[in-house]
Amino acid sequence: MEKIVITYSDKYLNYNFGPNHPFKPYREAKLMELLRQHGLVGTYVDVQEPAPATDEELLLVHTKEYVDYVKRASIDGFGYLDYGDTPAFKDAHEAAAVRVGGTLLAARLVYEGRYLHGFNPGGGFHHARPSEAAGFCIYNDIAIAVRWLRNRGVRRVAIVDVDVHHADGTQEVFNSEDVLLISTHGYDGRFYPGTGWIDEDGVGAGKGLKVNIPLPPGTGDDVYFMVIDEVIKPVLERYRPEFLVLQFGVDAHAGDELGVLNLTTHSYMKVLDLVHKVAHEYASGRLVMTGGGGYDVWNTVKTWFLAVIQLVNPGDLSRYSFLMDPEPTQTPLRHYEEALYVIDALKGRLGL
Ligand SMILES: [Zn+2]
Ligand SMILES: [Zn+2]
Q1: Could you tell me the distance, in angstroms and rounded to a whole number, from the CA of residue 81 to the centre of ligand 2?
Q2: Are 145 and 167 in contact (CB under 8 A)?
Q3: CB of 27 within 8 A of CB of 39?
Q4: Contact (CB, 8 A) for 131 and 170
Q5: Residue 8, exposed/middle/buried by CB under 10 A (0-12, 13-18, 19+)?
């Protein structure tokens, strides 16, 4: 049994784009409720409340102009922070900053050795760029936490991002640095944000360390298992990370209303199992997990719950089999061929 820290604040609920927006800010509160109901809080799980990230912390990644712009938009709360996906709302700056604070706190507690694993279900805003909001993301908590770690001498940080959308903002921040970023995502040339083909592999010191795995719509667990075994695993082992960050967005789940992939809890548990093992093998256990997308609230909450069980006591997972999706899914034949092409092309490029 291992104890993990979850960073959570009721202030996460303030990250609210309104009742008709697909992002549901109460997902994290539901997760905490479920963990309490099952007696996990205080036994396996410590909960710590984050403070909002300071301006200095936000400026590790974002420009002063952009942070000032968000603050101004937070006063009136009208209009959009980007081109139409991310509405401004009153006190948006404060609501986004506390979610960043959650990821920073988890990273700090793990960095200081107080816990091996931390989880901020309220984090994972991988589309936010240094000077721009995008795709429901205001501040890029992952990039900020990784920058914070790198500034303290943790050089080899691996980010694995399993959200259905390409981790474009995180990629932009670290494109020319030796941070490993592996992003699996739905891709058909149109699906948001439209980037993340295999040829986006970094520049300079980052060359070859941005590993994009674009998967055709309908991709199921059968293909995703191959991606985990044949690409993600060898790439992580070759890099030998000192610290791992896992963006665990559940919008690649079959039941998601915005996603295009057809994954189930089986893929999510398998990729977490790999990242967890790599963390213990190479990084003295140091792993920070965040949430991310996930627009079907129940699928998201149950998958995060199972992830917590898997981290603290995998032997207990069988007790929660009623939360697992019944069978791994199969990719339809026409997309299967396409997916194999992507995997083979990627292995060729990476020399695997
Ligand atoms: Zn997403
Ligand atoms: Zn562990």
Answers
A1: 38
A2: no
A3: no
A4: no
A5: buried
Q: Which CATH number fits domain 4-350: 3.40.1700.10, 3.40.800.20, 3.60.70.12, 3.40.50.1950?
A: 3.40.800.20
C-alpha 228/C-alpha 235 separation (Å) is: 10
Q: What is the pLDDT of residues 16-28, one digit of tens each?
A: 999 999 999 999 9
- Which residues contact residue 328 at a Cβ distance below 8 angstroms, ignoring those fewer than 6 apart? 220, 221, 222, 225, 264, 266, 267
**Ligand 2 center–CA 42 separation, angstroms:** 17
C-alpha torsion sign, points 204, 59, 124, 91: negative
Active-site residue, 127 included: yes
Gap between the Cα atoms of 168 and 146, Å rounded: 15
Cross-strand pairs, 161: 183, 247
* Prediction pTM value: 0.98
